[in-house]
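Dear colleague,

As promised, here are the two records you asked about, laid out in our usual form so they can be pasted straight into your sheet.

NAME FIELD: protein one
SEQUENCE, THEN STRUCTURE:
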Amino acid sequence: MKRLKRYQYEKYAVLCNLAYPRVFRQTQYGFDPNGQRIIANRFGKTIIRVLWSKHQQEAIIVIKGSHSLWDWIGTFAMWQRRCKPLLLPYRIHAGFMALLSQESRPSHKDDTLGQTVFEKTIRISEELIRKGKRITVTGHSSGGAIGCIIADALEHRFPKSIKRVVTFGQPAVGGWQFKKSYKLHHKTYRICCDIDIVTFLPPLPFYYWHVGKMLWLYNGRIYENTPTLERLIRSLFSWFLRPFSYHLMSKYIRNKVFFDEH
């Protein structure tokens, strides 16, 4: 597996953050004036942006995390459903299945009624792949989870069409069968920050499994593929000791910047 470089991390993190505002001006970030397609949910709210430039081989699918009460309620649907409607050979989290299979409200002249979020994303991506683009998928929280499913579906249909998958604060997607069938372990980077509780969800060991390479940003370092239980124990231990760490002289020396020079 290739390493995720700092500029790549920053680019995808910025795009994930900017996916939440209602308006996103893609030309400010190097994409074409017509290089954005929006996929809306059943309420007409943007859930996915597909971005590209004719001068770049990479097209990027950016997916928001949970940003409505309905989305958050869906995260508690922790049973697994077959992916037959998505034509994939495994079961996934029922809440994520609902996000993908909901009808997408039209937001472009080429959109038609009756298409799901999944179908519309796949259709737009296929058009770009046929034009020679390779797809990077990035998403935050539940957006990262459904991003893995979208990326895997595209890889099943168009081998080597996925450049990489980068997720931030992503919960687990499916069970052992999903982990075995997932084709992009070597291209998937799952980034976790400190004790982000969502990255431990769903709290059902051996029923849910993560995929790809985990990069844990913790105490000023990057740890790779730290086991979930070890990560949880270390995080809780650090959290418990944190009030005492502020007593160390190193903290007082670090805060010297608060004092004016005389």
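NAME FIELD: protein two
SEQUENCE, THEN STRUCTURE:
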Amino acid sequence: MSDFELADNHSLRSIQHSTIDISGLVAGYEQRVLLRNLFFVVPEPAFVAIIGHNGCGKTTLFRALTGRIPYQGTIRVGGRDLRTVARPAAEGLLAYLPQRTTVGFPIAVRELVVMGRYRHHRFLGGYSATDYTLADSALQQVGAAHLATQDFTLLSGGEQQLVWLAQLSLQEATLYLLDEPTQQLDVYYRRRVFALQQQWVAEQGKTILCITHDLDNLTALPPGGHLLNLSRPTPTLLPLTPEVVLAEKAYLESEESFVKR
């Protein structure tokens, strides 16, 4: 059996009331397969912290979800097989905040945030007063309303991340993917970004997959979320509690965790 052949023929689980259902996922690259026969179902709404060593498949999972690499198995988002969806972001299935997002030209914060409404308009269509009202509301919700008229490129890293989150929230997607959103942020902004994600789930009913190495801040989150450790030989969704986070941290620090690699 080759690396890209599935190990078994698990039947698809029920996808009722689930945002994402991954069944028998195998993905990786020509010389190395990083995800082997991955199964998990995420209910709606939910926050899922995805952890693991570098090279365990975290970003590979997001690349499969966003259609940037081929894969075997089945990925369903909102009950739809992603193989049958040509443009998941344009159809509102996925919203994605990559690890590094830059802007190379001066632009007012409000103008950048309103671009989150892009899929509600035809190509080259202008934004309406309603769109700008929603952009203002999104900035207010992330605590960045005072930045609306400022040049985005002159903001601090933490301020920029709040602006990206405001734009992301306007995409009104079924599933939100955040790749290390607290990377290189100070303590204040790391806690704030996690708090905003929890608020999205609790108050707006969003479902979020968040790749993170920030295990210390995970221990401070309220119960109710999930944790997926892709460094485990058989990754499964675990309850996101301080005890579970500490146990998984201890595993990642152990020699045992390198057996899979």
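A couple of things worth noting about protein two: Strands lie at 18-29, 32-43, 46-51, 71-77, 80-81, 94-97, 175-179, 207-211, 226-229, 237-239. Confidence is low (pLDDT under 50) at residues 1-16.

Best,
R.
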